[in-house]
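Q: Convert this sequence to structure tokens.
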Amino acid sequence: MSASFDDILQQVSEIPTKKLSVAAAQDLPVMEAVKEAFVRKIAVPILTGDEAKIREIAKSLDWDLDADGIRVINEPDVTEASLKAVKLVHDGEADMYMKGALESKTFLRSVLNKDVGLRTGKMLSHVCVFEIKGFKRLFFLTDVAFMPYPTLEDKEQIINYTVKVCNACGIEQPKVAALAAVEIVNPKMPVTVEADQLSKWQDEGRIQNCIVEGPLSMDLAIDPEAAKHKAGAEKRKIVGDADVLLFPDIHAGNLVYKTIVHMTEFKNGCILMGTKAPAILTSRSDSKETKINSIALAAVVAHHLNGGF
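A:
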């Protein structure tokens, strides 16, 4: 079971090296991360974009693309580059898809392209994995960046996606906390009603391969000491040991995400799920380490989705 990103990187070393298709790869931070991922044998990249700029950046990184056998596909137009890059994954020539120097909306359009994209007919959702100092397990946060106001059925699907990511990381029966401000069902607070329904669906077998409890406040979800002193703790399925933090909406998720990023010592990696293959949608503000971790996370998920582990 992975309890850290070192564990995930160890998993990557034990599986066949995956191929990473990068759209509009002419981006220095992305190229730095991709080179490091290649050197560490996390993934072999295929770089699509403005070839002259890609090679210029590679030279500045002292990276001989030809000597390392790195495939470069010349396409200066970023929209066309994204379509060519995603088609490689669609056609099975690459295992995962990463955003380079293009806008997120252009990247997502390529993901959803009906001819060459990775659409499955289902909704997309963002899963962010955190290793936080002081905790001896990984946290899987969802959705913190993509779905503004998920419906009850959306939350069910988000859980299904996140469970697959957990399973890929070796967590066979993840504990999912459906978060709210309180742990008591209150009809005037619809979030609590939906959290309770998700818990019941898991009890009934509609949601499988995980344990779901809600509504749960954050302290009861992540702090065993707080959970132990709460009335009714002996009846709870989750007592401060949640793996997955399921947020009621993007506001709650994003606030927690940014609190962790700016107020803790952490490592993280994020991927987009609901696609035929993992998609890596990082931002320019993400560190090189976060980009590398995201590639590693995508690699183990891609392996899992293809029948590995």
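The chain has eleven helices and eleven strands.
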